Amino acid sequence: MGAFSVAGRGVVVVGAARSGIxxxxxxxxxxxxxxxxxxxxEVPEAEPLRESGVTLVLGGGGDxxxxxxxxxxxxxxxxxxxxxxxxxxxEGVPVIGEIExxxxxxxxxxxxxxxxxxxxxxxxxxxxxxxxxxxxxTVGGNIGAPLSAQVAASTADTLHIVETSSFQLExxxxxxxxxxxxxxxxxxxxDRHEDFEHYAAAKARIFENQxxxxxxxxxxxxxxxxxxxxxARATKRLLARDKNIPEGTTIEGDWIVERRxxxxxxxxxxxxxxxxxxxxxYDVMAxxxxxxxxxxxxxxMTRAVESFHGLEHAMELVRDLNxxxxxxxxxxxxxxxxxxSIESFESGLVPIIxxxxxxxxxxxxxxxxxxxxxxxxxxxxxxxxxxxxxxxxVAVHDAxxxxxxxxxxxxxxxxxxxxxxAPACASFDMFHDYAERxxxxxxxxxxxx
Length: 449
What we know:
Blueprint: E1 10-14, H1 18-29, E2 33-38, H2 46-52, E3 55-58, H3 63-67, E4 71-74, H4 83-90, E5 95-97, H5 98-103, E6 109-114, H6 119-132, E7 136-141, E8 158-163, H7 166-169, E9 179-182, H8 196-204, E10 215-219, H9 223-228, E11 235-239, E12 248-252, E13 255-260, E14 263-269, H10 280-294, H11 298-306, E15 316-321, E16 324-328, H12 335-342, E17 349-354, H13 366-372, E18 376-379, H14 383-390, E19 396-398, H15 402-413, E20 418-421, H16 434-446
Helix pairs in contact: 6-10, 6-11, 15-16
């Protein structure tokens, strides 16, 4: 197969968020005639894009451009089942996603990380470990810089640490990670995927183009992940905290270790971890596994862990006000993530739950809420679902806004409780994204006197 080229081809990029804009710029640099479409009437960087030569079709009306395309590139937020896109594909027009496009021009190796929860933390921490060990690293994908923005800096010795979502993986063709990490699997994005099986199948594609010379890092404590990895052709490397594994990454005493048949090698001491929530141990174990595979020293990995205090909006301690802690876990956008957040505390908890429901079963929170929460505050479109799922195990209070939820939470958490934003839902009913929701939460907390 010859080198992939778009020179002189008419390429339509659908969706003008971060990934779409980066893809449009990359395609233009590679000689394509680029049209960028979006249903919104206004998008970021519109004028600079036009000035660079990108044709913008905004506010709808992109179907004609899609019909005339020689190649279609989708942003992660755009379903490939949209009628105009499905019709073009049926007529033989290639349709790929943004990470598939970018990966075709990468010179370096890819470490791809996915899972229902913990992707961002693991991706960033893996990058920091490898940087501390002296590797040339880029970090991004579903967070930070889109993969298309990393192509120019890609060299043979670059390691691209890429967070990959199910939306991105469902549109790959040749995307080939040297290391593929699957952290966990539970229902999510069922407002986009037809059902859980389709969601899981999209995740499983991370292994699709790997061979025996590649690595599949698998959480052996998660039966769903083990099932996903059955058909993987890459060499499997297990990690487990709860299951006894003969080889792989696990915990022995006070250390994360690499267990071998002839003994264990220490990787990272547990007391180096400064993250709120015991579930983060899996993220550190996964990052250390990649570090060990790449050849990072335990000293470098430990140094990275010690200096890492978590990501914004992921179990972020915002403030301790007269003994009441306010914790921002706005990234907990699905039920499983919210459950892990709630389980991180002992008692006196007031979770704020709600938003735009993505599917799953909120009743899975019942036992954890019953054991730990004094009350729950319901927000957004999903407030009736929250009351229905939890109202008979704990008092559920409605809040008209996130600022109201913070004020109500403070009163309910007295004298020494925790107000936890763990929405179990997307943010799009009230906010642009989870980051805006987290910022609004923090502003409301900081405004308390």
